[in-house]
């Protein structure tokens, strides 16, 4: 069997490392190159110590990139767009994990990111990377832009409700609880352990850029608002989105069940988690570490028309590398679950 | 100087232990008795190891209670109301830290607590225990009912806005992130360390009983709704309430500042925390461990009329024992800060 | 290909759940039954929520056990020995994960466990379950007794030194730092989150039963002592053994390197971890969550003949279920790594 | 009453901030100046957010230092010795919290610190800062050098045994488990939260500089060795020293009790912690956060002559700022406990 030759640009970061970990065990993949400008020439396990004994690969410089079948871009935001022609010359297919090509509307990009987009004409060439919403487009796509982690959890949690026009969109409040790996591997004052440990830090009460993606994917042609906040807590991996929506008509929980089952019943990576007893009655991100699942639960308020939708993912997996690999599998016609079988640990 | 003789009923729990810690160092207080049915005859430091070398007190049984000046009741909910006549016979003044006498309306009590109130005629004798809202009543009160911890943070965060009729009350969404000490010192399946560690657990997405207190204190004669959820995270002490409110008119942040300053400018235990830089820009519960502060911050959304109000307390202090002691100080005309001077640790 | 039919007795605990997780993905295994007396008839994912969507298995009662090829016993200590005849009647091969058959010497068992062994004549039928020491015996074994987690890390860390008679055995001090999953899934006062969180708890400064296994495997016919202590810290999975040994002759670090390379150079699950720079210079248990690795490092004291040997494992994997599966693979002639390929997460 | 005028040099670090917190509430102290070169002109609460509303002090530059009664030096190591004449010109009494003047022997300093001491003739002018060992000298001292945190816990734990010649000194193994605040407030790769969280990191298996202090204080004229290692764990404050010593003669636990009682019976900040039941049977650093206690416990091994001594402190309090304030109180004849009354929190 011929293997797909892939390279990862920016493989020394957390997202790149996670993708590399997955690709090393993918039966249809041959890793061609992994690049890092800071660690060129070094063994990847020096940066990703979990890969000791798993690989003898070394980092290359992006300038040494050779032709391959697929290029994964795991670069900081605002990098891909500046060198996109070069990357296109390296591989016919690109999966970009940065924010550069997520938004289809140039104005929205510039509003939320605060600077001009260098290549706005390419925005529409990229398929937005959530497989559950864009699977068909992905099958023939050359360019995919993976979704933001907070956006992924929020969109997957709310999609069936918004699509079916069941909620007052503008009243939606989304509160994400996020771990420290979301901030990447660069040290900063706020990530210093004595300061970051034990926090419940309102790091982005308004203006989070992922809001723009949520609006794009959930507006269905309308002009809607959603109200997003993010709070950092003392976990490393994982995020939970608690989404408060207000129903237009009086639905019971069994109706909601049906709506979610209709939307996601065949999805390999979505689980509806809603138990009446036990201690894991709703989605719990710690159970998802290393998995590609998005777990979704909900609870209807008996005293009002509020529905609380709870959505959990591993930000580095379903929120980044796992999502990208799932898209890759779709792109090439592999079983979507290939390389993504890990079921998570308990206890952890 | 004559000291006030106080006894604590139910002193082996977390709230009772915290209150005991505070009272031991209060210059105007003499501790008469501390009761525990499970630990009668044992040294209190066997249960509260932080009090080693601080006291040689032993637990008594409640049946041995002697006359004193004030009785603090730190019992499980639904206990005080059943023996209230006995407690009244012991002391002329009572501060109850349970939920039994918080709600003034019997129907509301029965709706949220799911059972009949045994002594509904007494509900109105108790002053609701948040000093910032009920200071004048406390000065002449004999009976005070301390507020719930989640309610305290939510009410203090929202009071100036609701009182001045600045928000659409029914759209309010309150999301509390809570620590494990809120659940008390009784072991249960969900508190087992391997299961409780690292969680982001939606333990009460709807129907949290503290909602009733919030409605009581913030309705100002109207019939309002608020939407409350609570998520358990991996901290022991402290809680953060993230409150999403929607403004009736277009207020700028400097207007909001003024409203909070007017409401709380002279309050010894409320700090407005809102910085433009640094890593502690908003309230942070870990900084409040052991203190009686309620820190309040806010952020106006530039894209909508949403205001995010962020309120943090130590649930065992301002949310329980500290609040009760502050009320006690007011009751007896002491400086409110007496015994509550601890300013918190950093780093922690 | 015919699959091996296996059953797990006591599959609702942490060790049994971990083993089940591994076996579900083992290509040569068919899971016949998993038993639990408390959860008979319940879906296993109710107890092991990480297995949602991975299996529809339900728990049986041990009394319903059917014939199979291998029985894994994941019972509390002092259970296997009482029903061993029954288990032998169910399957020709047994891998016992409890402590019942680890010690070959009946007197030692009774000294450390404080009670009579019911079937001492069987002690010698069980091969002690560390593959790196007993691989050849395992190939033809019918009965294997998996090693204790603390013992596994300590023995693997020290084996090359003791075997080669390089240290003063009696001066050895071993200090294990352990997570809360080691205590199993039964709630107790000490495992209550507010009490267990943040601890550095000297839970077993002396008399830890795993000491007996260390002595058994490292004595090589001599009468030796080692000094073992265990401290509980705020992690769930993983343990680190810091072993202080004193060298009989003046060896340099490169000599030590050679000794470990000779002992473990071909071992699939042992990695020598010793870096001169970076932040993961020595073994780090958090990197091992879900993996079967034992990482071993060391540092020679320049001022004395002390060598500090550092050994890390995941207590539920290499310290229990992973070790048992590795032994199973050896028993049946499979590649030892089958089902144990997971390389661990970073960051985590 | 005239207050003592004190200034803190280097008050923006963790140790300086902790000292400032204590001094602000000391009834006999007036804070003159607090210096920081990086934050000159800024409010101290911008750096120490726990001091919001507690003080309106601003940082000065050390170049602006005015005459005062006592100078506390909270500088990085190797700073005090270079400007000691200047500091002496500012205040007649100095308490240095760095390592510069801890060792009395110049050769030892240079061996462990790897560079020349600039002012070796001053080494003997400084009293080593552990009050329990040097109280009498402190009463007339002008210069005190506070001890290292790991050294403090180790020395206090072992002092009664070494002083009474009860152990084979050279066999002593000390294992410290330490929190992240020990590393100070400077960000580095190893303190990045995703990397530092959950670690059991062997950061200093050998060669820890605090070993030199332990040797100095415990040698009593002999030439001894002790074997020290330090492991970083996921706590912020606090450290536990597990000390393995080997007794020269057969002492029972009640004999050991007597030895510790004789040594520390009247000490206000030492507690012997050794319970037969309960969950806090030995010293536990989390209970000590914010306190000046050193808790000491022990366990005799029934199978050998090993005694495990367990010693816990808050590294920023008894290991730094609290110790310094206790010495200050002795220097000026105040009750040693003044300003150090905080008894610690439970749960935490």
UniProtKB/TrEMBL annotation, chains A, B, C, D:
Involved pathway(s): Amino-acid biosynthesis
Keywords: Amino-acid biosynthesis, Cytoplasm, Lysine biosynthesis, NADP, Oxidoreductase
EC number in record: 1.2.1.38
SUPFAM superfamilies: Glyceraldehyde-3-phosphate dehydrogenase-like, C-terminal domain (SSF55347), NAD(P)-binding Rossmann-fold domains (SSF51735)
Boundaries of every Semialdehyde dehydrogenase NAD-binding domain copy: 5-141
Top-rank taxon: Bacteria
Record Gene3D superfamilies: Dihydrodipicolinate Reductase, domain 2, NAD(P)-binding Rossmann-like Domain
GO biological process: L-arginine biosynthetic process; lysine biosynthetic process
InterPro entries linked to this entry: AGPR (IPR050085), AGPR_AS (IPR023013), AGPR_dimerisation_dom (IPR058924), AGPR_type-1 (IPR000706), LysY (IPR037535), NAD(P)-bd_dom_sf (IPR036291), Semialdehyde_DH_NAD-bd (IPR000534)
GO molecular function, one term: NADP+ binding
Active site: 149
Class in the EC hierarchy, top level: oxidoreductase
Keyword Protein biosynthesis in annotation: no
PANTHER family: [LYSW]-L-2-AMINOADIPATE_[LYSW]-L-GLUTAMATE PHOSPHATE REDUCTASE-RELATED (PTHR32338:SF11), N-ACETYL-GAMMA-GLUTAMYL-PHOSPHATE REDUCTASE, CHLOROPLASTIC-RELATED-RELATED (PTHR32338)
NCBIfam families, per database record: argC
Protein's name in the database: N-acetyl-gamma-glutamyl-phosphate reductase
